[in-house]
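Co-fold these.
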Amino acid sequence: MAGFSSRVEAVSISGIREVFEAASEDAINLGLGQPDFPTPEHARAAAINAIEDGAVDGYTSNKGTKALREAIATKHERDNGFTVDPSNVIATAGGSEALHLAIEAHVDPGEEVLIPDPGFVSYEALTRLADGTPQPIELRDDLTMDPAAVEAAITEDTAAFVVCSPANPTGAVQSKADMEAFARIADEHDVVCLSDEVYERIVFDGAHYSPAQFAETDSVIVINACSKAYSMTGWRLGWVTASHERIEQMLCVHQYAQACASAPAQYAAQAALSGPQDVVTEMVSAFERRRDVLLDGLEAIGLETPTPSGAFYAMPRVPDGWTDAVIERDVVVVPGETFGANGAGHARISYATDVETIKEALERMGRATQHA
Ligand SMILES: Cc1ncc(COP(=O)(O)O)c(C=O)c1O
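Predicted complex below.
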């Protein structure tokens, strides 16, 4: 049999899937990375209408419909305080494809990408698929990423660094000062700052800032998606925005790998982004209530947990054997080392489930902690 590329052999299937396979079918699943709310009705309706009108039978423009890209530009002005020319947006198959485009277009073989450790699993895998070298950056005690640690790790081989706030798997939110520093570092060292903002809307304490607000050159690339903000993970609709030059290079990858994002999803996303936003506010309040229940419960169990200020994950420090003991009691959580070597000694708990289920899971975690 013909062999495989060394790039693909350098990547393994996410450890998250292994955990799911180890758990029984009726286990409580606190391993999931998606909101448990329905997609807003007006977003669903927009896709249905577009299908019935025959508007989505063909390809859209490679970058996505003009109306969607205008809605994205308006959203950035409304929520993020920076302006985007709609022609400098590519609608993608989720934030995942946007990350892929950015890394493919900016990383040469052997070049380094600095990634948070623990960090979202795709950063390492996508860097390896581009033949780049991931360089893990250890996080602060509060699980935020220190700009000074990023700056110290930059070498002449560094192509990019990834900032993720609010973060998966930690729920940590970077401060305004950190984001200003990331922008300055990217500008001064002439490296790309890949800012993954897919959890941007889900912030409980403080506020979300984007490095793109502060950059003075075109060093920041922003990745975002409707997936988490509007509970649209299944629709596969994200986007990337950057300078004209960067977008044109990323478009080279996108047009051959994807042609265009799914047309019905583009209509749904346009409606989600430009329609009423109270659905997001309600979802965020529910997440905040659940976070507080979870944090109180973990504290009662005796697990120290840096307070997550956003997303829907908590990352307590756990004793050896804890994750296995919890999974044996039919609660799925993800071992911290799945997200990088520095994740060891932690577990990621997703609270994208109702309060009653979280309370039941906490009882089982309590029993598991006594026996871990
Ligand atoms: C930090 C982060 N970035 C990007 C993504 C990709 O999201 P999407 O479902 O839009 O591809 C995820 C998904 O879990 C994520 O956690």
